[in-house]
């Protein structure tokens, strides 16, 4: 057994002194005379391990290994011992730091913990699937072997550069990583305020959803009428599209809608859950007419039941395929089902309703998000250009009666020009 610390052999550690120490039947320790607490443990196998003995600020005794003689020289080990003593005097605990570093997971290991402990309990299933996809395809192949505590901002920046050819994937991967490292700080794997994703810029993305123009809207609804009259499409699809326009809704909100959520007396529909949580929207005359006209399938709780299995709602795939067929038949250029929501939001903004009311109709949480859905129509731009041209012509002719134009608040909101100060005034922040 090793001798008590008071009886340890003491000597000035040198290369010759450590080499001359012979193994015994049990471990024993040597104490350096130069640096207090600096030890060398000699094992029966002949291994010689440098250590530091100290007490923490809380009074706990620690004796972590610094390194093995041969891998470290005496002077290197002594220098590390002095550095550790400085940390102890500053209130640190090098032994605990070593334990935490050893237990710190790799990013590959941490990804599964993130999915199980954060993403599944807090995110929608679609977000969980997207997180898994980004982790599998982008994060683990490049960063998987790095310890969570060791990931740096240049590492993240290099990953983003590799994904520069796919800006959408790069941005969703960055968002996933940023949330992961927020959790890493929360769970003690990194120090607070060290998220390596901070300051990494997102890539600009091409605007994906275009506005369904007025003539296209006319053509679309003319085809929906013809499809209903001639049986060209299943009524569940044409009804769903009409209802999506009426509610300025997401596709998922329409196909999942249940009859029990509709209160005809209060003229309101309440979705218990959606992409942004529970939402509530009023029933317009248009919506009431649509809901009263649609045949209700016996035994189905869904407003838009699946074609062959009425106990389930229409699938995303079948609805999307029907939408694609319908817009092609109506002569529209390609636009996703989200184009319905963009068109509805634009109509809401251009109707002159207050901003708060418009956001309630689309169930958007922030002004910034709502304004992303509002498009400036060609006729608005053309009319504005004509007004500017006429005013300039009047000034050139010397007509000093030309009035200084005033800003139309509703027009500014509809045109997507609401600035940060206006956002603050209405109580929303992007």
Automatic annotation (TrEMBL):
Residues 206-386 form the Tyr recombinase domain. CDD domains: INT_Rci_Hp1_C (cd00796). GO terms for biological process: DNA integration; DNA recombination. GO terms for molecular function: DNA binding. InterPro entries: CB (IPR044068), DNA_brk_join_enz (IPR011010), Integrase-like_cat_sf (IPR013762), Integrase_catalytic (IPR002104), Integrase_DNA-bd_sf (IPR038488), Integrase_DNA_bind_dom (IPR025166), Integrase_recombinase_N (IPR010998), Integrase_SAM-like_N (IPR004107). Keywords: DNA integration, DNA recombination, DNA-binding. It comes from the Bacteria. Gene3D superfamilies: 1.10.150.130, Integrase, DNA-binding domain, Intergrase catalytic core. Residues 105-185 form the Core-binding (CB) domain. The keyword Membrane does not apply. Belongs to the 'phage' integrase family. This is Integrase. It comes from Sphingobium lactosutens DS20.
